[in-house]
Amino acid sequence: MTAGSFSSRYLEETRLIAAALDPERIEALASALAEVRARGGRLFFLGVGGGAAHASHAVNDFRKLAGFEAYAPTDNVAELTARTNDEGWSGVFVEWLKTSHLRAEDGVFVFSVGGGDVTANISPNLVAALRHAKAVGCAILGIVGRDGGFTATVANVCVIVPCVNARALTPHTESFQSVLSHLLVSHPALQTAPAKWESVR
């Protein structure tokens, strides 16, 4: 396969995913986020790997452009690694949420490819955190891949990025997590301030 043919196929898969996404589901996600903000709730972004990077980026955008009080536990590397070392990886998010006094008014937002799966021991920290969020009664939101795993089963609103090529599941899912996160902070129901270049005339 030449580089050009791979690039063409990858971009075609990207087009197919964009066309297959459900706009009404995305609108429901925007509405759920607006409700969290309206009731004075905080927004906690959870993710590992690429999802952690998306969480950090989303905290910036949702605070600066959409007026949320937003946080990501992975932004505090000292606490994250201390909890991993002392208590184990599976509890890092749930204990962070407990210390943050997660309440019913808040929202927990997951960026994950698989959504968490305890049986397969994939992202057990997400599963533990979401079980706590469910018990608290706060909004659970997410953008995940394939069938969404545990996140999709407990979320109030979850957008699942369609899989058009199982061998490219992770890069496509993580790419569209970024696309949809930017869509949300640009959404008229959420955006409270323009981005820098849009404000320059």
How would you portray this structure in words?
- It is a single chain.
- This protein has 201 residues and is of the alpha/beta class.
- It has a single domain (3-193), classed as Rossmann fold (3-Layer(aba) Sandwich), CATH 3.40.50.10490.
- It has nine helices and five strands; from the N terminus they run ααβαβααβαβαβαα.
- A five-stranded parallel sheet has the order 2-1-3-4-5, sandwiched between helices.
- It starts with a helix and ends with a helix.
- The mean pLDDT is 95.
What's the gist of this structure?
This protein is α/β, with parallel strands linked by helices. It has helices at residues 3-20, 23-38, 50-64, 77-87, 92-99, 124-136, 149-154, 169-186, 196-199; strands at residues 43-46, 70-71, 107-112, 139-145, 157-161.
Topology, please?
Elements: H1 3-20, H2 23-38, E1 43-46, H3 50-64, E2 70-71, H4 77-87, H5 92-99, E3 107-112, H6 124-136, E4 139-145, H7 149-154, E5 157-161, H8 169-186, H9 196-199
Parallel strand pairs: 1-2, 1-3, 3-4, 4-5
What is the H-and-E element order?
Answer: HHEHEHHEHEHEHH
Sheet having the most strands: 5 strands, parallel
Structural class: alpha/beta
By CATH, the architecture is named 3-Layer(aba) Sandwich
Quick one: CATH class?
Answer: Alpha Beta
Helix coverage percent: 40-55%
The chain-level mean pLDDT equals 95
In the CATH scheme, what's the topology name? Rossmann fold
CATH superfamily: Glucose-6-phosphate isomerase like protein, domain 1
